[in-house]
TrEMBL record:
Name of this protein: YwmB family TATA-box binding protein
Coiled coil: none
Signal peptide range: none
Domain of life: Bacteria
Pfam families: DUF1779 (PF08680)
Length: 252
């Protein structure tokens, strides 16, 4: 589990490898988990929402090698539509473009395009990752997020995107037993623990909810929920709680 905590972001979104998620064709897979995560926070008076995130990942393999002109044409339309181009890399045989967009509803969107030669084949792999995140929990319970994500899925022509959902909150509970709290949240989510990492100021639990289709296999066991609690330094600082499905994809 230590390895998950250190490299999970790179493992999921790297252009050279990622954790395969089973059952990713059942979309949308973000709505129920996001709502349940948010309700855990909203119904606990000691917790305050920090942020929530939805990530989509779609990979396509083309039979022919792409050119730099092909790649530039693919990503150019987003800059014309008001997205800010924060980085563009077209040196060598691996290309990357990163765009961001801050909407009037307070939501921030991030869009990354990758293109690189497919190993052992005369073709190209195109990878698109889309992310939307915010700090306002009220939009989760509205149709704003769902409509936006569905619009982007269509716009990006994502046929069967792999979906990752997570939420982070600050917990100012007086209880010091973070292991017990992690187990309680897993129970509330209808899951069973499959792996755990316990340290003095940090715990990370992997669990499985059979009602949620996407899952990852770890040591031959299915998992689709991660709960991580990190103790913050300072008097009354509380703890930071991160919950994700099927895994957490940011540092925690």
């Amino acid at each position: 589990m230590v390895a998950w905590r250190l490299v999970v972001f790179g493992l999921v979104f790297s252009i050279v490898g990622y954790a395969h998620v089973q059952g990713a064709n059942d979309v949308p897979t973000y709505q129920q988990p996001l709502n349940e995560f948010y309700q855990l926070v909203e119904n606990n008076e000691d917790m305050k929402l920090n942020e929530w995130r939805i990530r989509l990942r779609d990979e396509r393999v083309q039979a022919r090698l792409s050119t730099e002109e092909d790649f530039m044409e693919e990503v150019a339309s987003f800059e014309r539509n008001g997205w800010e181009n924060t980085s563009l890399l077209t040196e060598g045989s691996e290309w990357k473009a990163h765009f961001t967009y801050v909407g009037p509803n307070g939501l921030t969107e991030s869009l990354q395009f990758f293109a690189y030669p497919t190993p052992n084949q005369n073709g190209s792999t195109h990878l698109v990752t889309y992310e939307v995140f915010g700090t306002n929990g009220s939009v989760i319970e509205s149709n704003i997020v769902g409509e936006l994500v569905e619009e982007r899925i269509q716009e990006l022509q994502m046929d069967s995107p792999t979906t990752y959902v997570q939420i982070q909150a600050n917990d100012r509970s007086s209880s010091k037993d973070i292991e017990k709290r992690a187990k309680t949240w897993i129970q509330h989510l209808g899951a069973e623990t499959v792996e755990a990492l316990n340290e003095e100021l940090f715990v990370s639990y992997s669990a499985y909810n059979p009602d949620w289709t996407p899952y990852i296999e770890t040591n031959g066991t299915r998992m689709n929920i991660q709960v991580a609690i990190r103790g913050n330094q300072g008097l009354g600082a509380g703890t930071t709680v991160t919950i994700g499905t099927p895994i957490i994809t940011t540092e925690y």
